[in-house]
Amino acid sequence: MSLLNQNDQSNKLGEQANHFWAVLAIVLLVGTVFFGVRYFAIQKELRAVKLSLETQTINGKVLEFAKMFIEKVLKADKEVDFETRLKLETAVRNLNDKEIFAQWQKFTEAKTEIQAQAGVKTLLEILVNKIHPVKII
Amino acid sequence: MVRRMRQNLIKNLIFVIVLFISAAFAFSVFSATVTDGTIDTTYKYAWSENAGWINFGTTGGNVHTTDSGLTGYAWSENYGWINLNPSTSGVTNDGAGNLSGYAWSEGLGWINFSGVTINSSGEFLGYATVSLDSGQISFNCINTNSCSASDFKIQTDWQPRSIRLQCNNALDDDGDGKIDYPADPGCSSLTDNDETDPGGGLPAGAYNPPVPPSSGGFNVLINGGGEYTENSTVNLTLSGGYDSVRVAISNFSDFRNAGQETYVSNKTWDLCQGLTVCSEGQYAVYAKFYTQWGQSSEVVFDGIIYRKKTIPEKIVELIPEILQPLVPDFLKPKPLEKPPEISLEKLLSKKAPLTLNGKWQLLPPKPIKGFVLAPLPKEMLVLAQKFPELGETLKKVGITKMTDLDKLKTVQLTLPGLTKELSLLVPGIQSGGLALPAGIPVANLSVAAKQKIPTEIVFAKTGGGLIDYDVTLAVNEEGRPEQKITTITNKPLQLVVRPDKPVKSVKGYVVFRSKPITNSQSRINIQDLTASLIFANPAFATTQEQPIRVEEKLVLLEFEYTDPDGDGIYTADIQMPAVDGEYEIITVIDFQDDSLGKKEIRLITVVDPEGYIYEKNGDKETRIPGAIVSLFWLNPATKQYEIWSAKEYQQENPQTTDNRGTYSFLTPEGFYYLKVEAPGYPTYDGKAFQVKEGVGVHINIELKTKYWWLNIIDWKTTLLILGAVLLLYNFYRDKMREGLLQKKITGG
After folding, report:
1. Is the pTM of this model over 0.95?
2. Which of B182, B330, B653, B692 has the most crowded Cβ, counting Cβ within 10 A?
3. Contacts B363 to A, Cβ<8 Å
4. Domain residues of chain B, as ranges?
5. How far is B174 from chain A (nearest CA, A)?
6. Could you tell me which CATH number the domain at B219-308 has?
7. Tell me: the pLDDT tens digits for A103-132?
8. Secondary structure (3-state) at B714
9. Does A23 touch chain B (CB under 8 A)?
10. What is the ipTM of this complex?
C-alpha cells in the first residue's frame, strides 16, 4: 500500500516536472517569436533611417556644392584661383555622382561661351534634380 | 602722228583705269552687299490691313540686312516709324534667312518677325504679326497669290550663308579656326570659293586631334563604371568624338603591344591581356582615339578591382540582407582595399580653364532680359492706348514691363467713365446754385463726341444715362488686368459699346460666376461709407475662341445691343439680378467681315445686396417695413444739405422700405447723409459721407425703439417677478400674523 502511494507520489512529481518544462518551453518559444518579430521590425526601421540619413547626407553635399558653385563661379568677377578650383573639384568628386561629375567636366572643358552657358544651365538643373525630399520617420 | 598715238595711248589708259575702277567698285559693292544688304529701290513695300503700306526702303530709314538681323527703321503710312532694332529686342537673322524677334512701333506696339524668311534671291516671304491685335504684315504678294493685282514685296541684296562663296559665308569651312577672307589664309579674295589652307595636300583639319564628344569628353568605362569585377573579362564602353575612326586600347599606360583598331562604342576586353599572371588586384584600361588622319586624342583610362569571391562570401551573399547582422564577422568578406587615389592637386591644371577665367558671362543674359524686361501684357497696352491717361500714369509710376505689374497687385487704378473720358462732364446750373455733376446720356452726345468714344470698350451707365461708372482696374494673380464694376441688386444698368468695324450683331450675356466671399455691404459704419460705393469699369475686347457655352456656365440673361439711330454706338439696358453675387457680363461682337471673327468683351460685375433698416433683438435682426429713408445732398453753392433730386436719375427719394426693409440709391459724386423715420422709433440722422463717382448707397441702418426697455421684460419674466412679489407678500403677512399672536399672548 505504502509502495503504491510512493509510486503515485513519484508519478505526480514526474508529471509536475513535465508540466514545468513544457511551460518553460512554451514561454521560451513565445519569447523567441516575440523578440524575433521585434528584431525584424527594428531592422526594417533601421534600414529606413539609414536610407533617410543617406538621402540627407547626399542632399547636404549637393547643396553645399551648388552653393559653392554659385558663390565662387557664377558670382566671380575674376579668374577662379587654384585653391577654389581644388575645393570645387574635391566637392564634386565627394558627391560620388557620375552624372554631376560628367556635367561638371563638360562645363569646365567648354571651348566657347555658348557651350559654357549651356553647361551652367544643365549643371544647375542636374543639381536641383538630385535633391530629394527626405521622408520623416 | 606721234601726238595722235600719244592721245590714243592716253585714251586707252583712261579707259583701262575707268574699267578697272568700275570693276573694283562693282566687286566691292557685290562683296559688301551679300553680307550687309540694303533694300531694293523698287521692291521695298510690305502690306498690312491695319497699318497700310510699310516702306522698308526710305532714305532716312537706312534698313540693313546682315547675318545677325535687321537694323534701321521702316515707315508705316498709318503708324509712323517702326524700329527694327530696339534696345530690348530686335529682329534677328540666323544667317540662313530665318528671321525672328520683335520690332517696335509707338503706334503698333511689338511686331513679331517669327515666320518671315529671306530666300536665296533675297526676297522676303511670310508674315510678321502685330502682337497687340494679331494683325498680319505681308512681306510678299506671293503670300496671297495677289501679285497680278498688286506686285509688292521686300527684296534685299543680302544672301543666306548657304549660297555664298566659302570665303564670304561667315563659316569656318576648312575647320582651321579662321573664317573668310582675309582672316583665312586659304582665301585669296572674297570671291574665292575654297577656304582650304594652301600646302601639304591635306586639309587643315587633318592636323587637328579628334573633337571630344559633347557630353563628358573622351572616356572609357569598365563594366559601366563598376568598382569590382569577379571576372577578368570585362565590357568596355568607349566614348570618342564624331570624327574618331580608330582607337588604341591597352592594359598599360605606355600602350605597349597595342595597335589601332576600328572604333566601336562597346567592346569585350580581357584585363589580363599581355600579363603572364592574372592575379586579383587593381587593374586599369587605357584608351586613346584617332582621326582618319591619324591624329590622336588625350589618353583616358578607367580602373577596376578584380577579385574572386570565396565560398563563405558567396554563401553570405545568399543570406537575405535583413539577416546579415546575424552573420559573424569572420564569415563576412573582408573589405576590399581601395586603390590609392591620385592627389587632386597633381591632376588639376595650374591654369584655370576658359570657363573659370572670369571673362565669360556664364549666365545667358538674353533669357534673363527676356523675363525681366518682358513688355506689359497686350491687354494692358490696349487699355493704355485707349485711355492715354492710364498710359501716362503707368509711365509715371514706372510700370513699363511685365515684372513691374506686381506693384499693381495691391492697388486699384480708376479709369474714367464715358462722359469724363469724352471731357464733357461739367457741373450743371440750376436755380439756387450748382446742380449735381451729371453725365450725358449717349443719345445726347454730339457726333464728334460719339466718334471719340474708345472702340471695343464697354461703358456702364445708370440713372437714365446720367450716372457714369468709373473704371476699376486691378491686376489679378496671373498678371492680367481685370475690370470690375460693383452695383446693387435689381438696379438698371445701361451698357454702351462702339465696335470699330461694321457688325452683324452685338449680343450680351449675364453669366453667374460665384457668390461673393465677403459681403461688402453688411456691418459697415456710416463713417466708412465710401468703402461701399459702387464702381464701374470697362473691359476690352479679345478674339472669341469659342462660343459662350450654356452648359458650362449659368447664363442668366441673354440680350441684344441695338443701334436704332445708326450712329455706330450700340446700347443695351438690362436689370441687375435679384440675388447678390459675382457675375460676368460678356459682350460678343459679330463683325460683318467674317475674317475678323467674333470678339468678346468681359466685364466682371459684383452685385451687392440692397441696404436695409433693422432693429436688433438679441443676436437677431428684425427688418423694419414702412420706414421712410431720405437721402440729403450737400449743395456746394449754398453749403446746405437739401433733399437729393432722385427723379432726374429715375429714382425715388424718399424711399419707403418694403417687407424686407430694403432701400438703395445710385447717386453721382458729392456729400450726402441719410435720414430714417419709422413709427415707434426715434428719427435716425446719419453722419455725412462722401460719394465719389457712380455710387450706390446701400448701408444697413439699425434703429432703436422708443420703448427699448420693454424688450427686456417678456411675459415669462413678468410672471416670475409677480410670483416672487406674491411670495414676499405672503412671507410678510405671515410675519405680521405671528407678531400679532405674540402680542396677544404676552398681553393676555
Report:
1. no
2. B653
3. 74, 117, 120
4. 34-163, 219-308, 364-408, 412-711, 713-748
5. 18
6. 2.60.40.10
7. 998 899 888 888 899 999 999 999 999 888
8. coil
9. no
10. 0.73
